[in-house]
Fold this sequence. Notes:
Oligomer: single chain
CATH superfamily: Hotdog Thioesterase
Order of helices and strands: EEHEEEE
CATH topology: Thiol Ester Dehydrase, Chain A
Strand order of the largest sheet: 1-2-4-5-6-3
Amino acid sequence: MHLIGADLTRIEPGRIEAELALGQQHQQQRGFAHGGLVATMADLAAGFAAVTLVPDEVGVVTSDLKVSYLNPGVGTRLKAIGWVLKAGRRLHFCEAEVWCDDVLVAKASATMAVVQ
């Protein structure tokens, strides 16, 4: 998270928001936010949302991630919002959205596995 320059800006049980100032190092050859960065932000948001619902000594790992890209990421800031749809004992089902300024760039669904 810190290597790409993202910060958590809002943390609630089952929901988080993360933001990133877009720089040239985040762009692909046409100047859009790189798809891998967008997927990383979605994964980060979904994963941290799941983390808010497990005890401190327990973690989560991504077991499945599907990202649908809706618009190119053109702007100054990426914002990822992640939330838990259903928290289970072994799996948490999550969703995330990634926005670039005021445009929805991607929508993701993720399954997070709870690990002891």
